[in-house]
Specification:
49% of the residues lie in helices and 15% in strands. It has helices at residues 14-19, 34-41, 71-77, 119-130, 136-150, 154-176, 180-187, 195-201, 208-212, 229-271; strands spanning 45-51, 56-62, 82-90, 97-105, 109-116. It is globular.
């Protein structure tokens, strides 16, 4: 095959193909990664995603994959485009089905060409829990980003997530600005910094996982104007994860605050 070498580590796992890889995004494979193509077609296990009928997250189980070809026979089959369908049943109600359709070809790679529920549907449950810490404007932006990504739109989906990420970083900046020590060290130069450095100086006001893994957001300092769609699609899950790190920390802080207020009310009622 005349294509770039693909390491086994770079090729998506079945779970990533089901839940993370965008529609119509082709992933090339070769001898190094062909075992993962087989793993996708022979997948037996569970998929943790949103059930549209249950209106909640559920484990969907693949019990009997529709695949019996040997490794050698399958390689021969893939000289022509091959359509493979994965069906999984909801562990709550077996009549509820999740379905994933792939086009697999020796030359073109593995491409997800169909999915139910959609990536946007699957993310609705996650968005619900973030509503307490994400304003209405950015909730809509988050939904639009996921919808665009689920249809293979890279740059457009990144634009919405970037606005949310920048908003959350600015909220951390506003919190840091109330700290005299921080202002003395970074306040004067903060606005001139690139995004990666802004996150670095805000390390005490952001999740440690975000600060310690600059790949999650570092590409924002380089701009997105000249990046190809394929690259934007690969960057999308990283930026989404960076946003969710921040939102999860905000939820944790809010929950602690609410528990503290509840405890104070109980203590005050006993003292009376």
């Amino acid at each position: 095959m005349e294509q770039d070498q693909v390491s086994d580590n770079d090729f998506p796992t079945p779970d990533e193909f089901f839940l993370s890889v965008a529609m119509y995004e082709s992933r090339k494979w070769d001898d190094n990664s062909f075992s993962k193509v087989l793993s996708l077609c022979r997948f037996q296990g569970s998929i943790d995603t949103y059930c549209v009928e249950c209106k909640d997250r559920s484990l969907f189980v693949v019990e009997h994959p529709d695949f019996s070809a040997s490794r050698a026979d399958f390689r021969k089959t893939l000289q022509n485009p091959y359509i493979y369908v994965v069906q999984a049943r909801c562990s709550r109600v077996k009549q509820h089905i999740a379905c994933y359709v792939f086009r697999i070809h020796e030359k073109d790679g593995v491409t997800k060409i169909g999915q139910y529920p959609s990536a946007a549907d699957a993310a609705k449950q996650d968005l619900k829990k973030y509503r307490r810490v994400l304003n209405e404007e950015h909730q809509k932006g988050y939904t639009k980003a996921l919808g665009l990504f689920s249809h293979g739109v890279g740059a457009g989906s990144i634009v919405y997530l970037r606005k949310i990420f920048e908003h959350l970083i600015e909220e951390a900046h506003q919190e840091a600005s109330k700290d005299g020590v921080w202002m003395s060290a970074h306040g004067k130069d903060y606005l001139t910094l690139k995004m990666a450095n802004k996150v670095k100086v805000l390390k005490d006001f952001l999740p440690s996982d975000l600060v310690q893994h600059p790949k999650l957001y570092g590409f924002l300092s380089q701009g997105l104007h000249n990046r190809p769609e394929e690259e934007c699609l690969k960057l999308f899950p990283m930026l989404r994860l960076a946003i969710e790190f921040i939102l999860s920390q905000k939820l944790e802080v809010l929950d602690k605050q609410q528990r503290r207020e509840s405890l104070e009310k109980l203590l005050n009622s006993v003292q009376k």
